[in-house]
Automatic annotation (TrEMBL):
Signal peptide: none annotated. InterPro entries: NA-bd_OB-fold (IPR012340), Ribosomal_protein_S1 (IPR052757), S1_domain (IPR003029). Residues 119-191, 205-275 form the S1 motif domain. This is S1 motif domain-containing protein. It comes from Auxenochlorella protothecoides (Green microalga).
Length: 300
């Protein structure tokens, strides 16, 4: 009998099937079990505890909790199989492999979440190089760094020989950017990892060099050097004097120094100021070089 996944209501809540209610367990549930008998074909396990299931509902329960391990419910016996078994030995089919595999992939999702929310990286030792990029394993999971994620300039290409010399056998810091369940691998980025390392050093008052990427009436968007990140230099933070038109002060492609004035958790938005670098009010509009020279007073 092939078991179908239990249906969900319009709120996404899962309703147990009659078969699952009969057994007191459901497919995919995590249980704690103790091995009673082990053979080459498998093992008989006494279920001690099951997540979200009252222990009174468990048919295979033992009081001794020594040497237990977690497993995942893979299949359930039919009511006919249970009632037709005089010894009442019919029980759920458990899988330690499926549980461990699910736990590993949960770790993969955590690594991706840490990158997105906290700019956290992970270390990997490059185990191989192929035509697409770098390969390795992290937390037991295969991880892949494509060519496009080796450098912030995605058009830059290395030969396979250059990649081997540059990366093979070396520990590198990367950021997990995708969990590809279809291909069963994590996708990581060296360029994003470098960007994370730089951004995590930011604090209010930190000086940053960057390039003017875009100008509009609200201010200047500064691309932070050696990253793919952008922060806003609002027109009100350009100078201590009134700035009628920010496009008369900066031009696209110009390299500038700015001070970090604030940022959101995860560095989603970063705000900059050049007014704090002025010696005299209005210097940023008349003598920017003097402001850049004056930045030394703020370097820590």
């Amino acid at each position: 009998m092939r078991l179908q996944a239990a249906p969900r209501n319009n709120k996404g809540e899962r309703r147990p099937t009659d078969l699952e209610l009969y057994n007191g367990l459901w497919l995919g549930q995590t249980v704690l079990g103790r091995v009673v008998v082990s053979t080459r074909k498998g093992a008989r396990v006494e279920i001690l505890e099951a997540h979200n299931t009252p222990t009174d509902n468990l048919r295979h329960r033992h009081g001794d909790t020594a040497e237990v391990r977690e497993c995942q419910v893979k299949a359930l016996p039919t009511p006919e199989a249970v009632t037709g078994n005089p010894n009442n030995t019919a029980g759920p089919l458990l899988s330690a492999f499926l549980h461990d595999r699910r736990t590993m992939w949960h770790r993969g999702w955590q690594l991706q979440s840490c990158n997105r929310e906290d700019r956290e990286n992970v270390m990997m030792r490059v185990e191989g190089v192929n035509g697409g990029g770098l390969v390795s394993r992290v937390c037991g999971l295969p991880i892949f760094v494509p060519y496009s994620q080796l450098h912030k300039d995605r058009d830059l290409r290395y030969s396979e020989e250059e990649l081997r010399e540059r990366y093979l056998g070396k520990d590198i810091e990367v950021a997990v950017i995708e969990v590809d369940m279809r291909s069963q691998k994590l996708v990581a980025s060296v360029s994003r990892g470098l960007s994370n390392s730089i951004m995590r050093k930011f604090h209010v008052g930190h000086l940053v060099e960057g390039m003017v990427r875009r100008i509009d009436r609200n201010g200047v968007f500064i691309g932070i050097k050696d990253t793919m990140e952008t922060g806003l230099l609002h027109i009100s933070n350009v100078s201590r004097k009134h700035v009628p038109d920010v496009s008369e002060v900066f031009s696209v492609g110009e390299m500038v120094w700015v001070m970090v004035m604030g940022f959101e958790p995860g560095f989603g938005k970063v705000s900059f100021s050049t007014a704090e670098l002025e010696v005299e009010d209005g210097d940023i509009m008349t003598n920017k070089e003097l402001c850049w020279e004056n930045r030394g007073e703020w370097l820590v």
